[in-house]
């Protein structure tokens, strides 16, 4: 037997066997196209490339025999980039006719091309037509089947009416309203048209290449954060059951992609409660116009700015947890990066959201050193990268997020569903006001469902009574705004999430055609919250430490610099 290591795992394999055989013995998947065991091991397709320590050139795993002491890497960004280039080269000389091909469901090249996000259209129509490729929402008219689902959803559910039917008869199609550029059409970027499109005519801009470039750059420290609602859905795209797709396995999956630090947006959600909660306690004592609105959903903030600018001064000044995490990463990790020989930090986030791709570009959300989040991947892009890197997710051990920006509470986890931000805020606000832990039942906002325009409740603590409301979906939001404007209702604090059900139903989540999965994913988050030993944001010991060592107290000068913004700019 020959002893060797693959991806840092020791193994032994019989003399004369190949790296491919030894990797299979460890359950490590290496893609292949040409290999046919014992019959054809010529290494011609080059998609099974691996790197052997000490050797300059990569080699084909299928026809390289194992050697004593060999150290093999199958999972580095360099290996993935080479495999990807080879799949692309194969496609260059392959007539792709996927929709009518007899092998559409079983073609191994098509599967690899999809996993590596490469391939060319064979349709004569111009791809995409004229489109603003910088915008986070991409429309490819050559893939539109004129079903009008996007038109209906955008108008009837989200009240944005960005899309309209155009032409008639055989020339019927869909266009951006009034012939506008998409960036000027009032699109909130909720991404609901994407998740309700039956084909690939509507997609989110892919930022995978940007992230791969950073992972390949030895001078860059790569940091990733992952949003609350991702833990409820990431397994769907890599065929994990809900039981298998745990947060711990998700942290390991992110490490398998090569990120240097793996942090949890949930930590910053706890921080948001401290900042936004403190802001609200000051607000209720003031005579400012009611209500104060949450500002953590960029789809909602964009909708407010584009469609209801009059309420923008009432948005909380707290940045979203996503941007707070970016600010903490860029402002507190610089020394650690330099000590590790890295010249800059590249901060990536994995989000259930398309609007977050826009949020990280908003100049007012940067801190001193420049932009705080460099690239946003949707859950679909994350899943695709896992397939690209051939990560066997089911086999991953569970690991913790990195410290100190990785520890969180159940209150942060429920941010990912409608009512969760409000519920988390109430748990902390009531506890602080009464000097004793709040009752979870009293703070429960789960009655906020996508089926009712909004939920409302009144809560009293320490002689203070607050009227709160929660809405998700922009059509429901508009109904609530109209009722506020007409004086039919009055509230002190309102939570809005642009997507029906909140981020669990986000426009960047995995797509299952004709299935609305927000409720199922909400149950995952609620279970994680119920099982958490910490369920109130102010009990997070790492948040307490952060205030002691760095931020002093909520709403301090440094907290304002890093964690707040002027929404009116
Ligand atoms: Fe959400 Fe968030 S809860 S908006 O839906 O507040 O995307 O999951 O990351 O930032 O935390 C999305 C999800 C987040 C933010 C958090 C909030
Ligand atoms: Fe993004 Fe969540 Fe807002 Fe939808 S509800 S736009 S997923 S932040």
TrEMBL record:
It comes from the Bacteria. Residues 1-78 form the 2Fe-2S ferredoxin-type domain. Pfam families: Fe_hyd_lg_C, Fe_hyd_SSU, Fer2_4, Fer4_7, NADH-G_4Fe-4S_3. PROSITE patterns: 2FE2S_FER_2, 4FE4S_FER_1, 4FE4S_FER_2, 4FE4S_HC3. Residues 135-166, 178-207 form the 4Fe-4S ferredoxin-type domain. The keyword Lipid metabolism does not apply. InterPro entries: 2Fe-2S_ferredoxin-like_sf, 2Fe-2S_ferredoxin-type, 4Fe4S_Fe-S-bd, 4Fe4S_Fe_S_CS, Cytosolic_Fe-S_CAF, Fe_hydrogenase, Fe_hydrogenase_lsu_C, Fe_hydrogenase_ssu. This is Hydrogenase. It comes from Slackia equolifaciens.
